[in-house]
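[User] I wish I could look at a protein chain and see how it folds. I have put the entry right below:
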Amino acid sequence: MGFPLLPFILLFLVLLSIRLHHLNAKREQEEAEFWEKERQASITPAKDISNLRYITIPIEKFPLNFSNDEEVIAIENELKELSTHKLLNLTRVTNTDLKLTYGGPNYETMSKIGDDYDRATVLLNKYAEALFEADRIDDVITVLEFAVGTGTDISESYTLLAKCYKQKEMDAKLDLLKNQVEQSSLYFKNSILEKIS
């Protein structure tokens, strides 16, 4: 007499059906919660954004005009322009949370402020790389200490700064950098720590 498979198949199908129903219900609930949050965000009144702790690029501390390279000059010009803008690190803030935090009417303004910050961190990293190639290690440190201080999520900024600290035998600053990365919520935190240790 053969082993009765049919009851086990039926049981499996029933359990599968229950699981799929549960997953669908969960997805629908999450979707409903998302749209409710988005609705609330859209009607959130404007908040006062005049007294936020904005970031400004300390362009006066940078070694401008150190190179005749057109790409470096273009980076410097963009950084000069961005030094007149208000910046905020909004890297991990969703559009919905941006509206909830600062108010729907401020969404475009805050989005631009966040985009300008992202652009600035990319430029600062490229600028530091150009300075490193020119063997201007102290200037690399100045630029990258500022970038890292703002919480940039560009991993190369941390690894290049660590390289400069090691080259200049600045062990105390290297330890502070490691500690900062360890305490951060950077996406590539573990990878950065491996490279700078």
